[in-house]
Amino acid sequence: MIIDSRMKAAFEDPPPERCTKCTWVRYCTRECQAADWPEHKAVCRPPRKLDIGRWLDFNAWLFRWAARAALCTQGTNLTSTHALVVDLIRTDRLVPPSERPFLVDSVYLEAHARVAAQWHWQLGAPGYTAADRAHGAALQAQGALGLALVVFRVPGPNGTSLFFFQRLELGERACGAGGGLPCAEVFARVKGVVNGDFPQDAVLALLAADDHHGLTPDRPLQLSEVVRGPKKPRRKMKDRGQTVMH
């Protein structure tokens, strides 16, 4: 743009043209678009709506297992000091295309103090708040592990990052979850399951061996089951006509 402050005049360049198919890439001229097409056509496709909420619900069982295994490992309970952070990759611009809406780039633990120190993480729901800390302490007073914070980071528009927070009530009593796996192995298995490189059955086998409450993707663990014990089936005693627990 050329301006003349004395005359208060401005001479703008024409706005760049947008690719009509993907509406993502802009070009200065038609000639520029034609020159870039051999490379751009590999990623050019109509925009997709990536449902992060549905994706999080579908994988909730996996991240609950990962939070328990990573935040309470080798006898140390880290739920009140660290968060499980999951960096995601959007698949709408990957080559070749993927049917999965998101892939896991990395998984790691981050101290609550470091999470709170990053201003962009404080938009919307902050990190581990005073209310979260009190809630976690109340759960631990009942014999539970506490309240775990899981943070998902997704690339947003214009180079920004979007953050989604989950707070999980971990009702299990014993530390050392995940079959004694080190954190690096837990992170690798989460990445492998989401990205299709590690079978879900293998993680479910770990759950079955480590958890005595029947946790599966279709039946999430309830805090009441581990604090007060799982509900037991009822059967009627025909000879006495009463209902008993067994």
From TrEMBL:
<keyword id="KW-0862">Zinc</keyword>
<keyword id="KW-0863">Zinc-finger</keyword>
<dbReference type="Pfam" id="PF01753">
    <property type="entry name" value="zf-MYND"/>
</dbReference>
<keyword id="KW-0479">Metal-binding</keyword>
<protein>
    <submittedName>
        <fullName>Zinc finger MYND domain-containing protein</fullName>
    </submittedName>
</protein>
<dbReference type="InterPro" id="IPR002893">
    <property type="entry name" value="Znf_MYND"/>
</dbReference>
<feature type="domain" description="MYND-type">
    <location>
        <begin position="18"/>
        <end position="44"/>
    </location>
</feature>
<dbReference type="GO" id="GO:0008270">
    <property type="term" value="F:zinc ion binding"/>
</dbReference>
